[in-house]
Amino acid sequence: MNLNLTKMQGTGNDYIFANLLDVGDSEIFDEMNWSQMAIRLSDRHFGIGSDGLIFICPSDIADCRMRMFNADGSEGAMCGNGIRCLGKYVYERSLIKKTVICVETMAGIRTLYLDIENENHVRFVSVDMGIPIILPTIEINSFLLTPVSIGNPHVVYFVPNQPSEYPVEKWGPFLECHSRLKERSNVEFVQVVSQDRLRLRIWERGSGETLSCGTGACAAVVCAIQQKGLENKVLAEVPGGTLTISWNGNGEAVFLSGPAEFVFDVTVHM
């Protein structure tokens, strides 16, 4: 079976997209194991290579529905970089020609706001990520961790030095699966640079260390605003680029803005 797929990336967080908005294509994909498909295609040596696989599906309650599978085949509830790429995909390919797009996810409906240039080019996408849930800080093996839900689970740790010097590859998998956490969590290692800027590295559950994580950057920013007194609009520097995150405090939604880019289209035989 030949499948037409598209690879995209947002600040280095790369995903493979499958368009299931056509009913016929949806029936074809339903015959396959989506989890195993994500594992195979995400492999950077024997597949296309990505942080995961995203299906763009029809929805009865929104403009479309997003289902996202990590590189290890586990399904994620939400993906900030992936959903921005989805917005660019459906607009520039004339599948949903709106500058405000509602997307159904496992974390609820998320609204995308598209910044359009020259009629058909999407420069940036901003996302209403919903209201973050910040839980009390806990201590695990001398790590002071703040659990945060941005539709999916995170723990935020403020590192004493630059994240680039921190052994994320050692402590990321340890904290991701720690028994003190209610479920496997994404882990953010964060440095506050100034009142409107922070720097972080991300260990994503199901994918390992990635160049960027939109929900992870949001989790880091809301913690920094609440605990470190940062301003309400913060630039989050990740290894793959810079994201802009705004949050006005408890009870308010957090907004994520950043670029999204096509990498290539590909046809694969499954």
UniProtKB/TrEMBL annotation:
Sample GO molecular function, one term: diaminopimelate epimerase activity
Site location (Could be important to modulate the pK values of the two catalytic cysteine residues): 154, 204
UniProt-annotated binding residues for substrate: 13, 70, 80-81, 152, 186, 204-205, 214-215
GO cellular component: cytosol
SUPFAM superfamilies xref list: Diaminopimelate epimerase-like (SSF54506)
Any Gene Ontology biological process: lysine biosynthetic process via diaminopimelate
Entry EC number(s): 5.1.1.7
Keywords noted in UniProt: Amino-acid biosynthesis, Cytoplasm, Isomerase, Lysine biosynthesis
Biological or metabolic pathway of the protein: Amino-acid biosynthesis; L-lysine biosynthesis via DAP pathway; DL-2,6-diaminopimelate from LL-2,6-diaminopimelate: step 1/1
Record's subcellular location: Cytoplasm
Catalytic residue list: 79, 79 (proton donor), 213 (proton acceptor)
Gene3D superfamilies membership: Diaminopimelate Epimerase, Chain A, domain 1 (3.10.310.10)
InterPro entries for the chain: DAP_epimerase_AS, DAP_epimerase_DapF
Catalysis performed (reactions): (2S,6S)-2,6-diaminopimelate = meso-2,6-diaminopimelate
Keyword hit for Cytoplasm: yes
Quaternary assembly: Homodimer.
Function: Catalyzes the stereoinversion of LL-2,6-diaminopimelate (L,L-DAP) to meso-diaminopimelate (meso-DAP), a precursor of L-lysine and an essential component of the bacterial peptidoglycan.
Family assignment from sequence similarity: Belongs to the diaminopimelate epimerase family.
Name this protein carries in UniProt: Diaminopimelate epimerase
Native species: Anthropogastromicrobium aceti
Lineage of the organism: Bacteria, Bacillati, Bacillota, Clostridia, Lachnospirales
Gene: dapF
